Amino acid sequence: MREKIRVLVVDDSVVVRRIVTDVLASDPAIEVVGTAPNGKVALDKIQQLKPDAVTLDIEMPVMDGLQTIKEIRRLDRRLPVVMFSTLTERGASATLEALSSGASDYVTKPANVGSVSESMESVRAELIPKIKALVPGVAAPHAAAVARPAAPVAVRSRTGAAGTPRALVVGSSTGGPEALSSVLAKLPAGLGVPVLVTQHMPPVFTRMYAQRLDKVSALTVVEAADGQEVVAGTVYVAPGDFHMEVVRRGTALVVKLQQGPPENFCRPAVDVMVRSAVAAFGGDLLALILTGMGSDGKLGCKAVAAAGGQVVVQDEATSVVWGMPGAVAREGIADEVLPLGAIPDALLRRLGGARAALPPTAVRSTVLTAGAGRVGALAPAAPPANRTAAAAARPTTGRW
């Protein structure tokens, strides 16, 4: 077993290669074993050097990052690849496409920083923790790797029956974009509850991510807006750099966005969202924690469990990083610890079938009971103008 994480740095910019190389080399647990100016060279070096992880620029000559990640995944399904992206619409779109094609995670290139040292600090803060999370133990070359065995965890022992959830809250981070996509793609249009999502992402990325989710889901998916009413059958994605809460306004429940201090080093933070949902829905709440670094969501899920709500987490074997779901599972507050593919059915079962009998083109007609905030009955209706029946009934592949 090697003592250091071996990394290949791929970027067409000499300056960026030097910054990333110097940052990584400064960490005693990481060794930069090579660099490459484009994807074609990178593929050759991956075969030669057998790195434990790769950092990959998106825009490069000869072979760009999107072509490269697809080829890497054809050769090796498990090699951790971290994309290097610009914080722009173009960069966000390309990064989301790369994640859909198999990239493990991404970092954004420093923008509007005043010096090389500031750029290096920015890269160090983002990149090193992700590489260490993606390569928790350095072992034999990845080509010989097999699926990780799931660590044994104890699920929660209930003393009474759980209530019927009135909302679903979802938290995710590293590996979350694809995991959440695969879950939402299998939920029906007639879902009888609103879905609140916090995925750790910067601004611009969250808006484009919501648009992509909307294309694969029969549900309506939006980047949440301040003051927006929370209704059944709609998925609200927390915008980058804003905490998202759900609060009462009169007889309605609405989204509240705020820029309070980061929690768990994150804004948006899962814990902020889940705490507010517990205040709004009490124990009539279902929480789902998907793959991700760190422990964001653990305290929120403890509040859900204490209120009598339900908690489901993704298992270790199917998580890109079993940080967030693992933190919840180890607390013993999860009702189920499941592989990703089993989660949609578990959610529908716990949501009472989620009106699965409704046709895929059914659209929500939501009534909030005065003073209770409960989501009322659903009625089939014609799809909104931006969502045709054909789109609502598209095959749910879970891919973008």
Structure characterization notes:
- This protein has 400 residues and is α/β, with parallel strands linked by helices.
- It contains twelve helices and 14 strands.
- The strands form three sheets. A seven-stranded parallel sheet has the order 8-9-7-6-12-13-14, with helices on both faces.
- Helix 9 links the parallel strand 12 (286-289) and strand 13.
- Helix 1 (14-25) crosses helix 5, helix 8 runs parallel beside helix 9 and helix 9 packs across helix 10 (324-330).
- The radius of gyration is 21 Å and the shape is globular.
- Computed over alpha carbons, the radius of gyration is 21 Å
Number of strands: 14
**Helix/strand order, N-terminal first:** EHEHEHEHEHEHEHEEEEHEHEHEHH
- Poorly predicted parts: 139-150, 356-400
Calculate the terminal CA-CA distance, rounded to whole Å: 37 Å
Shape, principal axes of CA atoms: globular
Strand order across the biggest sheet? 8-9-7-6-12-13-14
How would you state the average pLDDT, rounded? 84
**Helical content, roughly?**
25-40%
Which structural class matches the secondary elements? Answer: alpha/beta
Q: What is the beta-strand fraction?
A: 15-25%
Give the count of helical stretches.
12
Largest sheet, in brief, is: 7 strands, parallel
